[in-house]
Design a protein that fits this description.
alpha/beta
């Protein structure tokens, strides 16, 4: 089958290649890929940024989001059948959405939301799971709380805005002026133009900040939290919780704590908290999220769609910052626009 493979770590390490179809284990479903989508995590894994914790061994197929059709099921699989339309964020060390076929553990798979096309569904899993796990599992967002989402027009930000609003929060976001109409349509109550305004000067008393920018932006985010508030970053620095989540040796947890010492110290001085976040595959959560998409509570935001054979161009498009809003999708359907 054709796939896009990381042959070596680094910016130029991905190549189109012919590889064997995946082996299907007892708990696996083999999925014929209809569409996949590009995530910043693809670049980070390609570049080897997590190679001490996520021990991928090149060559391996890249791609963290997938929608497709089940073509084979393992002997222990229940509740999924050949012909089912599904979507998934395959678990770490078993990614591979940039391929014609992928074998996925049944616990990571859910039925594709009926209301979404395969291309729309492929844009959903990673960002929807991340939004759910931050807002529901980690921050326990309640009605009436205040949530700040940075980069609200992005794939993750646009999803977090919608889910936070569904949970009853008052939502602020940073975005450019040309994205204001979009983020307000998704549910943002307050929009700060990051090009002309300093969000830390106009916002205060927030229960949660979700940061996908890092650096000085993360440090300023601490100052808009109320006492006891939580800043969550998806871009780091990582902390010991990340190492525990991946089952890494304890010494790596100590290393992670050293990397995040500065921001954790700043948070403590302000009476607030900092946590790094790294999402996990979860088919049962995708099932719940699918119901929210089918009910109209959530909707995918797609910037553009590339044909599968232009997956490298799609990755470059995202890396070059050309995305205006939402996700970039690669589709197996030749006539996708």
């Amino acid at each position: 089958m054709k796939a896009f493979v990381v042959q070596k770590y680094g910016k130029d390490g991905v190549r189109a290649a012919e590889v064997p179809e995946p082996r299907v284990g007892d708990r696996d479903v083999l999925v014929r890929v209809s569409a996949a989508s590009i995530n910043p995590l693809d670049k980070m894994v390609r570049n080897g940024e997590f190679k001490q914790l996520l021990k991928y061994k090149p060559p391996f197929v890249l791609g963290h989001d997938v929608a497709g059709v089940v073509t084979r099921v393992g002997s222990a699989v229940r509740g999924l059948e050949v012909g089912d339309e599904v979507y998934a964020r395959p678990r770490d060390l078993r990614i591979g959405g940039f391929a014609e076929y992928i074998a996925i553990d049944m616990d990571d798979v859910a039925p594709k939301p009926v209301s979404l096309t395969p291309q729309e569904a492929a844009a959903v899993p990673l960002v929807a799971l991340a939004a759910w796990q931050v807002l529901v599992d980690q921050a326990h967002v309640k009605p009436g709380q205040k949530v700040l989402v940075h980069a609200g027009a992005g794939g993750l930000g646009s999803t977090v805005i919608q889910l936070a609003k569904h949970l009853g929060a008052t939502v602020a976001t940073t975005a450019s002026a040309h994205s204001e109409k979009l983020v307000r349509s998704l549910g943002a109550d307050i929009v700060v133009d990051y090009k002309t305004e300093d969000f830390s000067k106009v916002l205060s008393g927030y229960d949660l900040v979700l940061d996908a920018v890092g650096g000085a932006n993360l440090e300023k985010s601490l100052t808009v939290l109320k006492p006891g508030g939580l800043a969550v970053s998806v871009v780091g620095p990582p902390d010991a919780g990340f190492a525990r989540q991946l089952g890494a040796p304890s010494f790596l947890g100590l290393v992670m704590n050293v990397l995040s010492r500065k921001i954790r110290k700043q948070a403590k001085a302000l009476g607030v908290r900092y946590q790094f976040f790294f999402m996990q595959a979860n088919g049962s959560q995708l099932l719940e999220l699918g119901a929210l998409y089918d009910s109209g509570k959530l909707r995918p935001v797609i910037d553009s769609t590339f044909p599968f054979d232009q997956t490298l161009e799609a990755m470059a498009y995202v890396e070059q910052g050309r995305t205006k809003a939402g996700k970039v999708v690669v589709s197996m359907t030749p006539d996708s626009n």
